[in-house]
Amino acid sequence: SLSIEDIDLDYISNAKILHVSGFSLSQNPSRKTIFSAVKHARSSGVKVSFDPTLRLDVWNSIGAIRRIYGKILKMSDIATFSREEANFIFGTSDPEKAAKKAFRYGIEIVGMKMGADGAFLQRRRGEKLMLPAFKVHAVDTTGAGDGWNAGLLVGLIKGWDLHTCLSVANAVGALVVTKHGAITALPYRHELKKFLKEHEMDIDL
Question: For the whole model, what pTM was predicted?
Answer without folding.
Answer: 0.94
